[in-house]
Amino acid sequence: MNRYTLKALRANANLKQSEAAQKVGVSTTTWSKWENKKRFPTVKQVEKISEVFGVSYNDIIFL
């Protein structure tokens, strides 16, 4: 089982923070805060991240 940080998911998809944020439906500032562990996404947002990047929520590292 592979596990990924949000930054790794974004980089593997060759996306800028602004592009990843747009796909998930949040601001670039919000995405940046998630990557820098200053804030954390809601369950609904985690579901969207999983859908956009094609990974299970269990595969995403938030801490």
Automatic annotation (TrEMBL):
Keywords: DNA-binding. PROSITE patterns: HTH_CROC1. It comes from the Bacteria. One of its GO terms (molecular function) is DNA binding. Pfam families: HTH_3. Residues 6-60 form the HTH cro/C1-type domain. This is Transcription regulator. It comes from Streptococcus equi subsp. ruminatorum CECT 5772. The lineage of its organism: Bacteria, Bacillati, Bacillota, Bacilli, Lactobacillales.
